[in-house]
Amino acid sequence: MTVDRYWCLCLPSIYNHLSVLVNSYRKVGWLMWCYQLLCLQLVLLHSLSFANLCSHEQSSALLQFKQHFSLSNSSSTTCDFVGIPSYPKMKYWKEDIDCCSWDGVTCDRVTGQVIGLDLSCSWLYGSIPSNSSLFLLSCQKLNLAFNDFFPSQIPSDFVRFQSLTHLNLTFSIFSGQVLIQISHLPNLISLALGDLQPWPRGLTLETLVMKGIIQNLTKLEELILDGVNMSPLAPGHLTNLTSSLMLLSLGNCGLQGSFPENIFHLPNLHTLKLQGNQYLKCNFSKVDGSSSLRYLDVSYTSFSEKLPNTIGNLKHLSHLDMEKCNFIGPVPMSIGNLTQLSYLDLSDNNLSGHIPSSLSNLEQLIRFVKQ
Ligand SMILES: *[C@@H]1O[C@H](CO)[C@@H](O)[C@H](O)[C@H]1NC(C)=O
Ligand SMILES: *[C@@H]1O[C@H](CO)[C@@H](O)[C@H](O)[C@H]1NC(C)=O
Ligand SMILES: *[C@@H]1O[C@H](CO)[C@@H](O)[C@H](O)[C@H]1NC(C)=O
Ligand SMILES: *[C@@H]1O[C@H](CO)[C@@H](O)[C@H](O)[C@H]1NC(C)=O
Ligand SMILES: *[C@@H]1O[C@H](CO)[C@@H](O)[C@H](O)[C@H]1NC(C)=O
Ligand SMILES: *[C@@H]1O[C@H](CO)[C@@H](O)[C@H](O)[C@H]1NC(C)=O
Ligand SMILES: *[C@@H]1O[C@H](CO)[C@@H](O)[C@H](O)[C@H]1NC(C)=O
Ligand SMILES: *[C@@H]1O[C@H](CO)[C@@H](O)[C@H](O)[C@H]1NC(C)=O
């Protein structure tokens, strides 16, 4: 701003100098007009970009939020395991810099409102109080993954983020019950609460909350609950999950009983992960060609029966992991119908008989593990 203002202010004096220097040239008047036009344009541009600036309320809300936490590298060690760099993003938040340019902050280009906050892997250690200034923002995307909020619960005030579409609390060590308020965010497209903390750290999700999620969150495309304790929930309750779902990840949730078969036929579902639910039974006997699944992981679950021929109907599969599922008997011929398969793991089952010759149809197969 200052530079342009300087130019505008000093233009008359430049004009004077020019007039003296090239007095006899009438062109100077025309030149002046051009300069003024340029000047006007610069001022206009700046007033436009000023509208993008973060308001004082927002920047102080963010700075107050920052004060809830101490920054500790041990809060984000899991990031290093999964290969995401971790560093204290908030450390460099400074009052005199436009908050829309702070690391992790996204603003709406027109209104200047903070609409996204990505503080994943940011060393946060502490808890979010219910009157936190965080809830003054109108976030659409919130990512607090890979921090340490133990022993706090997911605050019920999250319900104030009515425009929230993406909530990512993966590996953020929240504990206790997932509150019903999570199901009062009707615009959620992606919900990730996965964690792998041993009890009593970690989250529990009760039947009532799952019912709320199923009834209210009808726009969900991704539901990731790996490691969340869902043992109180009968898997049958998952039957009416929304048809918009593309990815469902329920690894190590302690699910027990029969997994509803209709989930395989959700029209948009391409990824289903059920691994590590030791007492969960899946029945493939009714799967037909309507399934869109490309990725299926049922390793470390319970079947205790023969692998049905119908497995060959999951014709879009490229990844099939059936390690240690207690399958018995022969591998069905129809496995050769899964022509897109690039990964097949059948190890650690009680399979018998020959490897079917149809496996040679699987031209994409890169990795095959058996016994
Ligand atoms: C974390 O911080 C401690 C103390 O500040 C330091 O000794 C340690 O090397 C750091 N660890 C990593 C992974 O940066
Ligand atoms: C929240 O409440 C605590 C204690 O009740 C108070 O000290 C703090 O200033 C409040 N914070 C905000 C942002 O209102
Ligand atoms: C959640 O955030 C982490 C860290 O940024 C990222 O790796 C992961 O893909 C995110 N999950 C979802 C569902 O967006
Ligand atoms: C669905 O959300 C509304 C508010 O958005 C809430 O009043 C209602 O109780 C929710 N339904 C369930 C089953 O949780
Ligand atoms: C699923 O929806 C159908 C039809 O609305 C209903 O009859 C059934 O009880 C629901 N199942 C569950 C487990 O909620
Ligand atoms: C799977 O479903 C078929 C047909 O519905 C049934 O005959 C079979 O017993 C079921 N298997 C298990 C383990 O429930
Ligand atoms: C699937 O495989 C079986 C056995 O190899 C075969 O008889 C059947 O025609 C195949 N179905 C399709 C749709 O390719
Ligand atoms: C595996 O199969 C053999 C023979 O069919 C049987 O004796 C054994 O008990 C089975 N093991 C398991 C773990 O099911």
Automatic annotation (TrEMBL):
<keyword id="KW-0675">Receptor</keyword>
<dbReference type="Pfam" id="PF23598">
    <property type="entry name" value="LRR_14"/>
</dbReference>
<dbReference type="InterPro" id="IPR055414">
    <property type="entry name" value="LRR_R13L4/SHOC2-like"/>
</dbReference>
<keyword id="KW-1133">Transmembrane helix</keyword>
<keyword id="KW-0325">Glycoprotein</keyword>
<keyword id="KW-0677">Repeat</keyword>
<comment type="similarity">
    <text>Belongs to the RLP family.</text>
</comment>
<dbReference type="InterPro" id="IPR001611">
    <property type="entry name" value="Leu-rich_rpt"/>
</dbReference>
<dbReference type="InterPro" id="IPR032675">
    <property type="entry name" value="LRR_dom_sf"/>
</dbReference>
<keyword id="KW-0732">Signal</keyword>
<dbReference type="InterPro" id="IPR046956">
    <property type="entry name" value="RLP23-like"/>
</dbReference>
<keyword id="KW-0433">Leucine-rich repeat</keyword>
<feature type="domain" description="Disease resistance R13L4/SHOC-2-like LRR">
    <location>
        <begin position="269"/>
        <end position="365"/>
    </location>
</feature>
<protein>
    <recommendedName>
        <fullName>Disease resistance R13L4/SHOC-2-like LRR domain-containing protein</fullName>
    </recommendedName>
</protein>
<keyword id="KW-0812">Transmembrane</keyword>
<keyword id="KW-0472">Membrane</keyword>
<dbReference type="GO" id="GO:0016020">
    <property type="term" value="C:membrane"/>
</dbReference>
